[in-house]
Amino acid sequence: MPPPMILHGVGRATIALDGDWQFHTGDDLAWASPDYNDSAWQPIHVGRSWEAQGHRNYTGFAWYRRRLVLSPGSATGWTLALYLPDVDSACEVYWNGVKKGTYGKLPPHPMWYGFGGAKGQVVVLGPAESGELAIRVWKAPIVFLNRPEEGGLISVPVAGSAEAVAGLDIAAKYERLKAAQLPLWVARLASVLGVMALLLWLRNRKHFILLWLSLAMVYPAARYVLMEGPERPSFRVGYALTEPLVGINDMAIWFLLIALLGLSERKRLVRWTWIIALTAVGLDLVDTVCQFFDWTAWPPHRFLTIDAVTTVPTIYTQLWGLVVVFAAFGKRLDAARWLLTIAALLSTLLTALQDMTGFGQRWTHWTLGERLHAQLFTVFGYPVNVQLLVNTFLLMSILYAAWHYLVEYKQRQNALEQEMRNARAVQQVLIPDEIASVPGFKIDTVYKSAGEVGGDFFQILPTTDNGVLVVIGDVSGKGMPAAMTVSLLVGTLSTLTQYTLSPGAILTGMNQRMLSRSRGGFTTCLVMRVDCDGSITAANAGHLPPYRNGEEIQIENGFPLGLVPDAAYIETRLQLEPQDTLTLISDGVLEARNLQGELFGFERTKSISREPAEKIARIAQAFGQEDDITVLTLSFAPAGTVTVRLDDASGSATVEELRPYSL
Hints:
The chain is α+β, with helices and mostly antiparallel strands. It folds into 3 domains: 5-176, Jelly Rolls, CATH 2.60.120; 180-405; 431-636, Phosphatase 2c, domain 1 (4-Layer Sandwich), CATH 3.60.40.10. The chain is 41% helix and 22% strand. The protein contains 17 helices and 25 strands. The strands form 6 sheets. Strands 1, 3, 4, 5, 7, 8 and 10 form a 7-stranded mixed β-sheet that branches. It has a 5-stranded antiparallel β-sheet with strand order 14-23-22-19-20. A 5-stranded antiparallel β-sheet has the order 15-16-17-18-21. Strand 12 (375-379) and strand 13 form a beta hairpin. Helix 2 (181-203) packs antiparallel against helix 3 and helix 4 packs antiparallel against helix 5 (235-260). The longest helix has 45 residues, at 386-430. It is rod-shaped, with a radius of gyration of 42 Å. 37% of the residues are buried. The model is unreliable at 641-663 (pLDDT under 50).
């Protein structure tokens, strides 16, 4: 049995309570009593784990006891306190049989700090006097990353006045805070980048690279709070959050690499990346779910078994980053992408190496993991290790590569916008702003594009015999390809009308032209030749039929242009009477859709088909435009037409001779 420890000079000073203490495994609150005889207990050193002193793999409760005696002549009237720098895992402090404080919390609702998460704890014992100090320690069950030697008072307790001990605690907190400054700045930078990337992605959700960048910043930002900060959470909270965050971080970096290294077209690589990433995150979440249960009350090795079964596969999935990186070799990459590739490779190797050497470390006694966490040098007094260097390098590489990518994207956008401006200029030339005056006809047109560049087109071409050729069409697709097809068709139409005014022949020629250039697309088109006497010759290539005075006209319909090489377009002949009105529309009117998903439809279209062109387009737009809207109305009023107007009030009739329409 060790002799009592004499406390010399305590008061304004402190004294380390090192040396031998009495130690016993098990748990009995009677052991807190100052009268308990602990002479049969085992002597043990504090400042070292109990595993290193003969209690291998022991978890659960154990007690430390030490008799403290104030030296003769010590000052009185001051308060005695105890400082516990670090305990594995948690403890309760008893002074002369009375519980005075805790480090963490003991079961049944335990809370402890693991993997170097020392918190430091001041316990006020009471008025300065001699007495029996008993510390009831609880060691948490072993997990896969436990070190070889753990458990107990792994740091030497210190006694002294409450003021002196509080000073030790403040100094220790300052050192922990100082050591965390560089990781803190890395975490702050990661947080700012993550938030900015997320906000940019929310503005334009097509750029998934911004989402992956945001997710890749979550773990570097959270790592400080969970593992490196001076006020890190308890082991179970940190363990529950760290593993899935690591899995999400790996997934985000893999997909960020795929995007930045130009590997998105490799469908097999992308598919397997999804499979492996989701598998790893799923396995990590199993450990997270276990934290919702009191697994500390399970048999000692049950959680260790679950932890190992779920963690070993995830360690090997981390090597998938090497596959992604190696897939980029052979590609011509710029300096920014090569820098990111090297940084991601180092980060992947380091993480996998740390986890592989850390797993089973207590059985293999590999020390590589500890050396990777060891201090290499200091920067302005702040410690730097391999992990911090690699994390900072990766963070800066991602930042530089993302900036470089956004600059390139902006340049591509500027070039695309210039192309769009050119296409709009071409389309403005192709879509007539003014309609030629044709005696005997009143023609109104409205064109409302659904995007920057539309796929609808129409042409109003006067004929040499005072008639008019009316053409309306709709190209499949949108944007630049549709606009280029429109220009091709309008040019073809202009050429064909120099040789023929037959609607069927015109559609046949346009179909042949489309077959050589359509690349899988097609075009609907309606061609109508209206002569000066009101006779109509019409041919249709899959377009919506026109309306006459609010009623749909039945016209022979052929295949859309660009689908069938030998398509035939049969001509239909009709006759307009004076004051008849033709209405031609594109499917943008019919397919307008409201917020409830309801189509405008045939019935509504028919009901407004007698309205002016501008009103029809405005009604369809208000309902919910989704496609280009084109409306064309043609009213027939030849010279000498007589109309009778009836006055309902007087019953008299007025006969008027209408003059030909002229714009």
